[in-house]
Amino acid sequence: MIYLDHNATTPIDERVLDAMLPYLKSFYGNPSSLYRQGRFAHTAINRAREQVAALVGSSPSQIIFTSGGTEANNMALATLPKEGRLAISAIEHPSITEPALRLKHKGHEVSFVDVDQHGLITEAALDNLIRFQPNLVSIMLANNETGVIQDIAVIASRLTEKGILLHSDAVQALGKLPIGFDRLGIHLMSVSSHKIYGPKGCGALIFDKNVAINPIIFGGGQEQGLRAGTENVAAIVGFGKAAELAQAELVQRNEHLAVLRNLLENCLTTIPGLTIFAQAMQRLPNTVQFGIPEIDGEMLLMKLDQKGVAVSSASACASGGGKPSPVLTAMGIEAGLAKSAIRISLGQTNTEADILKFFNLLKPLIGQGSSS
Fold first, then answer.
1. Which domains does the chain have, with CATH numbers?
2. pLDDT at residue number 372
3. What are phi and psi of 334, to 5 degrees?
């Protein structure tokens, strides 16, 4: 199989698995227990907290481990005060848009921040956002479909001077961009383990100590009393190791991904009528989303699957609805072209041979003839 869907999830790194195994087999104590087994587990969690903090540019005490990016996003929006106003960008992940709509249903005022045809928040949209006077804003650092990167530091500066809190979903950016939580000037940030070759079921919310965190899970004093429940020690250890590796190998990984993406885009641009969305924008080095007129994206996905190629037609958390991507719709992409969208997200194990094979399998499926 040629796996080209790393924005959905990544295969676990063998070095991460090796770090996890002792906490699945030998050091199985509850980290809240005071005896030796418990202390071993507690120490391992603290070490992982330091590793994740080093990758995101925060202090370890600002890390709350969660079950993943979705829980971290929900936890971030739960900081909205009673009767507070919320604003989110029109291109957020469903784990932001759905809790936002739930807050709206409960009576909160919720505003959606427009993006331009490239998927960027414009100066005018930011001015409108500030006039709305929200208590909390959520804008993702890098989009999971197009890969477009927002200038979060500039946005944060504008909002902070108005006393507005900013959360950023950095799940896709983690491990692909150098991230400095304090440098960005944001107040809350969500990250996830399984996007950086770590295990599923583990993520984190990074928070400014001046922000009041409202727990959404109760029943214990874990995670500074902010997230109850016995910690998933092995997964947290794996997340820590994956973070350590991502920090050490960031430049090397990005150089590899950039070579592959350039090769892929050079191939794709030979197909008449094909559009690479937001191609001219600053994007994640591993992400390419394209559309082809009169092609059904989900049907093409299934045909590629039959050929042993795994791609995505949109966010893995929102696929299967038969509707155009909300992200592309927000960018003003015509519905037919948006429904044709295919997302390629590259990873460390991909090779130039994978790209060429994928392209040669793609061409006959869209009526471009067979490989030479």
1. 2-9+250-365 (3.90.1150.10), 14-245 (3.40.640.10)
2. 36
3. -55, 140
| Nearest Cα residue to 209 out of 82, 74, 61, 45 | 61
Digit-coded pLDDT (tens) for 47-101: 999 999 999 999 999 999 999 999 999 999 999 999 999 999 999 999 999 999 9
- Token couple for 165: 């809190």
Q: Which residue in the list 248, 258, 302, 317 is annotated as catalytic?
A: 317
Residue 97, exposed/middle/buried by CB under 10 A (0-12, 13-18, 19+)? buried
Q: Is 86 exposed, middle or buried (0-12, 13-18, 19+ CB in 10 A)?
A: buried
Active site (annotated) includes residue 317: yes
Residue 170 amino acid letter: A
> Looking at the chain, how many residues does it have?
372
Query: pTM of this prediction?
Result: 0.95
Whether the pLDDT of residue 320 is over 70: the answer is no
Contact indicator for 150, 142 with CB cutoff of 8 Å: yes
- pLDDT on residue 212: 95
